Amino acid sequence: MKRALLSVSDKTGLTEFAEGLIARGFELVSTGGTKAALEQAGLAVTGVEAVTGFPEMLDGRVKTLHPKIHAGILAKRDDPAHMAALAEHDIQPIDLVCVNLYPFAETIAKPETTRAQAIEQIDIGGPSALRAAAKNAASVWAVADPADYQRVLTGLDENDAGLRTQLAAKVFQMTAAYDAQIAAYLDPEPFPQQFTPTFSKVQSLRYGENSHQQAAFYGAPDAPAESLVNAKQLHGKELSFNNIRDADAALAMVNEYQEPTVVALKHMNPCGIGQGATIEEAWDKAYEADPMSIFGGIIALNRPVDLATAEKMHALFLEIIMAPSFDDDAYAVLAKKKNVRLLTITLAGGALPERVETVAVNGGVLRQTTDTKIETAADLTVVTKVQPTEEQIASLLFAQQVVKHVKSNAIVVAKKGQTLGIGAGQMNRIGSVEIALTQAQQNKNFAGAVMASDAFFPMDDCVEYAAQHDIKAIIQPGGSIKDKDSIAMADKYGIAMVTTGVRHFRH
Questions:
Q1: What span, in angstroms and rounded, lies between the C-alpha atoms of 160 and 164?
Q2: What are the pLDDT digits (tens) for 258-282?
């Protein structure tokens, strides 16, 4: 008779799977709660202590860690010496191992979990048994996921060696991820000597950045609530690779604001950000910031979408609309377009906590803490003869908060909670200034606009160009060896300039 070892924390589908194994001639061996559940279902099951001749001990820490278990799993069935050794020691082969790992990630996700409680959820025997079965996949079934139970029963009928190999690989993927989560918990150092990330597939994607590229979307087990991984899609087509990149960038932006705010984004850069007393007013400002580029854009709002705002958005072609919620009548209007993707999101309610972000490079990754810095009036140093007004300071701080989300070289022209022009990703800073101001001067609200730069001015040409195009105040980090030239140019034209001492490059 074939023998199966079952020891699971997740009892989903357990009884049906065990019944399927019995029907296929398996004797069941089990431990603790799994054994009790099988017996309660009226199934014949042998306790692991009856196999090992040794009781479970140390509060269940030691159950399956015994030669009569592991030799039964690891013995090569086609090796006469291995099989003779089993016979000599009265060990029966184990042909299937079904084990779920202790729920470590779920345990540490609970704020009230103590370190001692977390340690008890580090599984030792489970991974050992699964890895042994996976190593011997030529003969043994390694089953770690209840979702695979039916496939396994079918595979047993067909003696599907290919499926056994797939399941073995899955075991090593799961145990590697499990160990990585434990290591990260025990040592939260953001830059350890060995960096072992773990992600689970959220969905396969139709294609990547372009149609000839393959792609998939993965999520981290500890993805924060305010991340795109935890957004819920209510309507529309499946998200694409580019949708996900853009939506993630828009969500990072809108998460920073507490006032009613709308972010419109195209190709990883904001094309318009607006703030107002209501979400409708914020939408109007974001739209009027760049009514051309918003076409086909990604929209993120930090307030529920009401009917008036929904009707205005419905008039445009938009790829994605994200908000904490949609009023019923607003949703009904937006859902008339079958392709627009409507997502509900969780917001952080202000500045995001500092985390570590990872960027792939060929053959490796870069990791850094996130840029969570948001300047306040206390961070500003006035370096010109002209002092900025309170209204200008508010506009400068708004522009500064936007500029850190724009690809470098980055320039933002803004006024009173509205972007007017954005210059992104140019190879020289003056090019970004020209683009931002060309766009901004087309806006009816341009008079009295201010300008933000993500990095210092290496020459005074940017300041001179801004002055010649009616910019009245500038915010920039400072720190260039030619700062005095830019300051002198600002003084020449009567512009107020403040520095922050903080650069906000974004590549």
A1: 7
A2: 999 999 999 999 999 999 999 999 9
